[in-house]
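Figure 2 data, in text form.
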Amino acid sequence: MADLGNLDDQDYPAFTTGQAAKMLGVQEAFLRSLDTANLVRPHRSEGGHRRYSRRQLTLVVRLREQLDDGHTLAAAARIIGLQDQLTDTQNQLADAENTITDLRAQLDQR
């Protein structure tokens, strides 16, 4: 029986360069250029072939969208980095607000 444990793993390197390029509608050379620029570093198989995870494919799509909007590759990477930092900060703020709410409720019960 096949091992299906990695189906939900966002970081499992499941896709070859050709598969990734076809799914995303980009050229294989574009994926290789992202690797060369150290923006998307795919896993390498024992034979040295690139293998992309779903998380990496999502990043490629985000980079492609920024490039399509006219940004340079460096600017696209910076924009995505800042977007991710903002999301992380918003999540931390929401967690802190939930903690404050819980603490207030505990104080009100006393």
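Caption note: The chain has a mean pLDDT of 94.
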